Amino acid sequence: MSNKGMIIRECERLNAARRVFEGRVDSASFFRRIRGDLVITGGEAGNQAMVLDLFCSCLERNDMPTIILTSHPEVMTAIQQKRNTQEIDGVMTSCVTDKNYHPFYGMSAQQILRFVCMVAEEMGYTTLIDPIMIYAAAVLNVVAAKYPVSLPAIVKLLNEDDDSISEFALQSGLSNVIADNIRANHEAGIALRRLFERLEEIFEDVYTPGSDTKYNFQSGAKGNLSGMAMYACSSNQHIFNSYLKEEIFYTLKRVPRVRIILDEMEFVDENDELMKYLIQAKRQGKVELMLVSQNIKESMHGNSELDFANVVLFQHGTSATTDDISKDLFSTYQYHVPIPVAGNTPHIFFSIKKAVHWQIQREERLRVRSQDLYAKPAILRKQSDYLAVKTTANDNVYLIPTSDFLPIVSGVPMVV
């Protein structure tokens, strides 16, 4: 008697540990239901209507300030349109058409001096760094004597000549040493003015020179804003990301927790300060981190830490890339398959007919393979591709038709 039926049933029972099922949900409903960190990766992560759904659903929770950093101007435009039509409120946008950001506002002199040093190295002033730092420290003391230190306040003072600045230092009750450091470092003063011109260029897409708005993430989070959106691309992404790291660090000194959405954020390399800090803050529970990228491993420069509570996996450019990222996000399982094994009929010494016995063969497989996301054959109608999602609700993975999940919103294009 064949044991085929018993072996097949046992394989089905063992394979149930994969816990992958089909389901249906749209992006807006999905984003409203989930709680915790999120990663969205794959070609369709460029759908800007979906990113807009994500941002708006986070605002609806009203549980912590939400910051979105995006490289897509279309997202900024869509957020502004929703704010203008009063579909959302309590949102500030900083971008080319809304240059309201106030760089360095609320930061310490020590932090600002660090960025002066970074820009000096970028511009090749390595031999002048020491006198530049002495002159810059003196200028920051003079600014702090009358104003909150910030980029526009510093630039305003640097528009004066050295004699006027040193005279103002003495009038403000500062020591002669500070005034002397300004008068004795004329060449460094010229270089510092060029450095701050460069800093203004780095922030040019979100900042109007001379504008004293007193708005940044710190003031916005402490105020009554529920959401802050920024176009986060710069002519020097390394310095810009380092600044954002400091800004978020000090924002978390004003509020206990923030939610940060990174929409195709550019990280310079695997040691990018912003990337490393946000991953650390995520582990510490200070930041609820949501990453959106068409290839999350490439975006994070191979960073292996993809431990996210909620996952949305679309197809990538190649099956191999999809499988590679799926392994990191969903892991593997032991797949059991029945295989026939020929042998003699039991209890019979001689038989022409060989008995066929069945046994279980095991192999390691991905929980979600690239072929699981392909459209299934259908007659007379076009079938949708699939995406895979996982949430904190349980250990299941659900395969969702892409056409059900993605929103179609006029005027919000998909970026490819």
Strands, total number: 12
- Main-sheet strand order equals 1-12-11-8-2-7-6-3-5-4
Find the CATH topology of the largest domain: Rossmann fold
Classify the beta-strand content into a percent band: 15-25%
CATH superfamily of the largest domain: P-loop containing nucleotide triphosphate hydrolases
Q: Regions with pLDDT < 50 over 5+ consecutive residues?
A: 409-416
Category by helix and strand content: alpha/beta
Give the C-alpha Rg.
29 Å
**Highest-level CATH class of the largest domain:** Alpha Beta
Largest sheet: 10 strands, mixed
How much helix is in the residues? 40-55%
Distance linking N and C termini? 58 Å
Return the domain count: 2
Gross morphology is elongated
Question: How would you describe this structure to a colleague?
Answer:
This protein is α/β, with parallel strands linked by helices. The chain folds into 2 domains: 1-101 and 227-416, Rossmann fold (3-Layer(aba) Sandwich), CATH 3.40.50; 109-202. The protein is built from 16 helices and 12 strands. The protein has helices at residues 4-15, 27-33, 48-61, 73-84, 109-122, 129-144, 151-158, 162-171, 176-183, 186-202, 217-222, 237-251, 273-283, 296-299, 319-330, 402-405, and strands at 20-22, 38-41, 66-70, 91-94, 227-231, 258-263, 287-293, 310-313, 332-343, 355-366, 386-390, 397-401. Strands 1-12-11-8-2-7-6-3-5-4 form a 10-stranded mixed β-sheet, with helices on both faces. A hairpin with a 6-residue loop joins β11 and β12 (397-401). α6 packs across α10 (186-202). The chain is elongated, with a radius of gyration of 29 Å. The termini are far apart. It comes from Frisingicoccus caecimuris. This is TraD/TraG TraM recognition site domain-containing protein.
